[in-house]
Amino acid sequence: MEYVIFGLIAYLLGSIPFALIVGKVGFNIDIRKHGSGNLGATNAFRVLGTKAGIIVTLADILKGTIATIIPLLVSFFIEVEVMRLIIGIFAVLGHTYPIFAKFKGGKAVATSGGIILGVNPLLFLAIIITFGLTLYLFKYVSLASMLTGVIATIIVIFMHDLLLLILVASLTVFVIYRHLENIKRIINKTEPKITWM
After folding, report:
1. CB 88: neighbour CB atoms within 10 A?
2. CA–CA dist 47, 73 (Å, integer)
3. What is the number of H-type helices and E-type strands within the chain?
4. Structure confidence by residue, pLDDT tens digits, 60-109
5. How many domains are contained in the chain?
6. Would residue 197 count as lying in a domain?
7. Among candidate residues 142, 181, 184, 146, the one with its CA nearest the CA of residue 41
8. CA 191 to centroid of chain Cα atoms
9. Is pLDDT of 1 > 80?
């Protein structure tokens, strides 16, 4: 029963569409009608600007992190680590299919990172560095997101943590699935690139 309750809380937390909120409150813009129409941080950067993009990114990350902290409030459970990972995934599902935004959300990258921050901060740091390097090299946010997931999975293999490996690998597969259209655009060379100053 506790799994269901905390999973529901995590899903509702993940469903908070921060990109939509920031766009409407700060700019009177419905971000779903601009750019890619996606309720994620990347579209927030493109449509709303750097400051708004940073706010949305941090908020989306925290959704995943807070979801993994919730089970610590009931640490008498034997499988607390397992529970944290499962509940974190519900936050990702909420972010991707938000009940507060007609089930059309973001692509799960930032919130997935938030889960990892909650369970393994050092791995999160490695992911941030990897994402920054791959984005700098290839200039595609989508490609950097997918490559970061793959590299994170490889790193976790050497950590000998089966539960974490299952989580990271599952999130990576999900993120790649959410980026299938981006993959097509990369192949067709129509995917937008980041322009460095």
Report:
1. 32
2. 38
3. 10, 0
4. 999 999 999 988 877 655 457 778 888 999 999 999 999 999 999 999 89
5. 1
6. no
7. 142
8. 20
9. no
